[in-house]
Amino acid sequence: WDLLQHRIENLSLSQLGPMLFSATALVSGLNVGPRAGTITMQTKTVTPLPASVKPGVVTGEALWDLLQHAKENKYAIPAVNVVSSCSISSCLEAAAKYGGPMIVQFSRGGGQFIAGKTADNADDAACIAGSVAGALHVRQVAELYGVPVILHTDHCQRSWLPWFDGLMDANEKYFKANGEPLFSSHMLDLSEEPLEENVGTCKEYLQRMAKCNILLEMELGVTGGEEDGVDNTDIDSSRLYTQPEEVWEVYQQLSSVPNGRFTVAAAFGNVHGVYAPGNVDLQPQILHNTQKYISEKLGDGDPKPTCFVFHGGSGSSREDIRYAIEAGTIKMNIDTDTQWAFWDGVREYEAKYHDYLQGQIGNPEGETKPNKKYYDPRMALRSGEEAMAKRLCEAAEDLNCIDVLNWSK
Known about the structure:
Elements: H1 2-8, H2 13-29, E1 56-57, H3 60-73, E2 77-81, H4 85-98, E3 102-106, H5 108-115, H6 125-141, E4 148-153, H7 161-178, E5 185-188, H8 195-210, E6 215-220, E7 225-227, E8 230-232, H9 244-255, E9 262-266, H10 285-298, E10 308-310, H11 318-326, E11 329-333, H12 336-352, E12 361-363, E13 366-370, H13 372-375, H14 377-398
Parallel strand pairs: 1-4, 2-3, 2-11, 3-4, 4-5, 5-6, 6-9, 10-11
Antiparallel strand pairs: 7-8, 12-13
Helix pairs in contact: 4-14, 5-6, 6-7, 8-9, 9-10, 12-14
């Protein structure tokens, strides 16, 4: 009830009904505990980045050092699903502006889109080729922006493992030639399966990934809503909340893998997409409880032994985001809001130059005036890039990820 009272202060009367119902159900069914007071973060001085972290794509120990730096300095890194060089450029431009790292990630569908929707996709060939091509593009340009970049792939359920296997083949080939993997990390999402099967498959893949220094992100519980082929809109609401005992099982099993590095996307009411206020009930206190539970089990004095990932971040309140960061969240996915921002930038461009976009010749300046400079695809796409970068800078503010690149001397 302390949690409910804490939130009521910022709710309108029309929002109280749904929140009262959801909070009552949650308190009776889950051990979430009391919520802490208002979170303030911006006054802390950021410690120097580890010397291993450099501009460009980071992998292996440098990646882990960067994630630990985020956890220690209480910021989270925005992660965006990209579908073209335009969305990649938006991410890198934003990171350079807000002065922090960026996670550029590819979904299976995004990879296929990059390869071309009519490309042969037998055995996920186009999904694999597009994801690899996108990663190579990022590697070529990332260092030019002067920021650390994490190359990641998003949700992969069991039926999509041929895509994952193809990416691992590419990683191993790249590792043999360059001494590091092509991608920094990959996600396996087997959260709809029984815990034993989920953890067992993740452990099996982490054993392969660890040999070429790739980090695994795994999911527990289920992120609601729908995103890029993953539809959990009708999921049982109880599965939206992970229990500490489940995370502890994951921690024990994956920590036993030599050189294995992993993060956990533990569900705490997360939902993909953007919904009206009151329809999503985030409970980041679950993450705090889980850290305390695992810390007590380990008994090594580390208050936050786990690195958490926040899925379904679009539309979340700054209060919930920062409370999750306090619990060791080091990454937040932002997809829906960035999609809208890109489209909105294109829409605004069309609205502004509508009368110049009705034909190749003729506009308000004269019947014979050419319009090529207006319908050049780069013009509208650039407007989308700028709008998306602006939205990501706002997200970085929420994530406390502004000016965190205190490079080691």
